[in-house]
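Quick start: what a row looks like.
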Amino acid sequence: MKEMPKWKAEFFDDVLDGEWARLFKITVPGPIFKFIVFCDWHAGNETCCYSGIEHLCRYVEKEGLPWVSLGDLVENSLRESAGSVFEQNLMPHTQEKYIKDLLYPIRNQCLGMIEGNHEYRSKRASDQSIAASLADKLGIADRYFHLSWEGIVSLDLRTYEGSRHPITWTLLGVHGTGGGYSPGASLNAIHKTERVYEGIDLTICGHSHRDSSDSTNLYGIRMNERMQSPKQYTRQKFFQVCGAAMQYRKSYAQRKALPASAREQFIIEIGCKRMQRVVSDKKIEIIYKYKNSEAFPLI
């Protein structure tokens, strides 16, 4: 097993609009941070790629990768929900135990968990939260986002090891909503978060089972504190829609003539780098944020 990354997690409780919320802050000693996104495994569905997610968890354990879960790790079909309880090869309580056994060896590598609409079925029917129960059994209840389908993580990176001045990434994880029939539709759904959250650098999303990514530049004006004069700035935002772990044959998607799921999970590397350019006789430091991602196929 690789040495665990030298990142430090801190948890802060806050109140927003009268509701209790938890915020995470991750401190990284260097300029790069890599993590993997778990979402839409649908364990218990007869089309789940069990061998793929088991191989994935062994890989994450071997590499020491931090991970975040965006929900729908279980199928959790109930009598009143869409789909059929008879299309499950594991019952809901067994689905939870299966996921718990998979994640237990890598529980300390978790950055955070949120629930998806499939876990929410139990909460809606009986006020029982599968995601909260799973986090509790894994011993990581402090990393479960109680904001239901969304969570925010702040990451402080250093342009070089030992630097006292961090470059902060703000990550928003959402489970997602809507059908997402096409890649464009899934991106439109994730872009809607811009109307709700300000100051987000990277938004990651599940639910649609698509594989889509996008970025956009925002421009603004702020006052220069020393010169008391306005200064233009640009901010780049990144969006990543992640895949699923489901076969197409005999699936809900096939019955509804929907596109096949993107059978992959994403490893995302974020970082920052400092460059210099000379304007006249002055040196100006420019800090770039960048994102790379690679797909881990599930077979």
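That is the whole record. Residues 1-5 have pLDDT under 50 and may be disordered. The chain has one domain: 8-297.
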